[in-house]
């Protein structure tokens, strides 16, 4: 679905986002766009009403509607109703573009979002990385969560790394074994089979290994929440129970313990930024694993190619890339990555 599938008014709004913020939502489905714009219209009408009442309250001596209207610097003269009026409103209210982007580029995330992917990472990808780093005598593993939203993905991978390194150091496998001795769901059973393989691969590896997770997003507000790191219980719904030991209870929420937060660094980074190919905080990229999930869907192929160039360059040889469920390498990048799993969007960089 492209911009041709949107009606004229909606296409104008989408072009405005592209022109002024380089955000291309022409691939968004029509109903989703309509719903989100309706939400903004409703919000603007509410703000207008509050603004009007505030005006009436503070200027109660002034009675005529004209006088009230002329005192409204930031609100439209009458509440806007249609997408055409909304498009005009966007021209005169640049801040509204940010609100629209916030409502369209959804910052939703959760711990262990897509459990199959995280199982695959835990059983195959992370042990491979630990083993190969250990064999080459490198002391640290570098991971990038690109488009991290409120941080759940970055903390999830930090918990997995923590458990695997703990296992390789102590041989006790507290984390792994807790999940393996559970009452036996399908996933637990399938992990049970591979548990010994993980343990063998990890034995003696990583005894002094460390790791860093660089977590970046374009949106400062979500990064603030990621740093605060207090999550409502529903954000933990996909999480295997064994990981609960890595959280503190804070009021009605949960917060990862300090040793989980400590290896994770958050910073603002726009994946379309032309000046650098990786987050400046990471200095040189050199990542063993990059997660860039549920972000590419917002951009057309041209922008996706810009992003893939960065992801590819920032990965070490044989590094791994994880995409969202419906995302695939585009164009030339189809030959730059090999998909390593039938069930998940996990790829290995092809060395050129
Ligand atoms: C739906 S969230 C995905 C969060 C997480 N990766 C996951 O799958 O649970 C998409 C995130 O991508 C971020 N994003 C969108 N465009 C971006 C860009 N150009 N550069 C960096 N982050 C971007 C958004 O701010 C949002 O937080």
From TrEMBL:
- Please state every residue range assigned to the domain named CheR-type methyltransferase: 80-352
- Asked whether the UniProt record includes Transferase among its keywords, one would answer yes
Keywords from UniProt, A to Z, are:
Methyltransferase, Transferase
Entry-linked InterPro entries:
Bact_Chemotaxis_MeTrfase, CheR_C, CheR_MeTrfase, SAM-dependent_MTases_sf
A Gene Ontology biological process noted in the UniProt record is: methylation
UniProt-listed PROSITE patterns: CHER (PS50123)
Q: Which GO terms describe its molecular function?
A: S-adenosylmethionine-dependent methyltransferase activity
The organism sits in which domain of life?
Bacteria
What is this protein's record name? CheR-type methyltransferase domain-containing protein
Tell me which species this is from.
Answer: Desulfamplus magnetovallimortis
């Amino acid at each position: 679905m492209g911009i041709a599938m949107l009606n004229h008014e909606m296409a104008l709004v989408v072009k405005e986002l592209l022109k002024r913020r380089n955000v291309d939502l022409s691939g968004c489905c029509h109903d989703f766009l309509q719903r989100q714009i309706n939400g903004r219209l409703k919000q603007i009408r509410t703000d207008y009403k509050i603004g009007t009442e505030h005006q009436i309250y503070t200027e109660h001596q002034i009675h005529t509607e004209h006088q009230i209207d002329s005192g409204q610097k930031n609100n439209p003269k009458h509440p806007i109703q249609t997408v055409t009026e909304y498009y005009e409103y966007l021209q005169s209210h640049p801040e509204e573009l940010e609100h629209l982007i916030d409502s369209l580029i959804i910052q939703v995330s959760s711990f262990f979002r897509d459990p199959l992917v995280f199982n695959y990472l835990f059983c195959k990808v992370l042990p491979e990385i630990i083993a190969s780093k250990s064999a080459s005598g490198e002391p640290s593993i570098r991971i990038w969560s690109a488009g991290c939203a409120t941080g759940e993905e970055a903390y999830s991978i930090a918990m997995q790394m923590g458990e695997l390194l703990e296992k390789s150091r102590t041989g006790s496998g507290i984390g792994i074994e807790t999940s393996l001795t559970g009452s036996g769901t399908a996933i637990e059973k399938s992990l049970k089979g591979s548990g010994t393989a993980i343990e063998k691969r990890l034995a003696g590896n990583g005894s002094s290994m460390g790791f860093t997770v660089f977590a970046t997003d374009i949106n400062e507000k979500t990064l603030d929440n990621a740093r605060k790191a207090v999550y409502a219980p529903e954000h933990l719904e996909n999480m295997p129970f064994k990981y609960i030991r890595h959280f503190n209870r804070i009021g009605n929420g949960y917060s990862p313990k300090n040793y989980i937060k400590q290896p994770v660094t958050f910073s603002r980074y726009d994946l379309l930024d032309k000046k650098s190919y990786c987050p400046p905080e990471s200095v040189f990229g050199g990542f063993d694993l990059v997660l860039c999930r549920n972000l590419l869907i917002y951009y057309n192929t041209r922008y996706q190619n810009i992003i893939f160039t960065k992801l590819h360059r920032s990965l070490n040889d044989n590094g791994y890339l994880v995409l969202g469920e419906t995302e695939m390498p585009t164009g030339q990048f189809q030959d730059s990555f090999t998909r390593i799993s039938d069930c998940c969007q996990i790829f290995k960089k092809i060395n050129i």
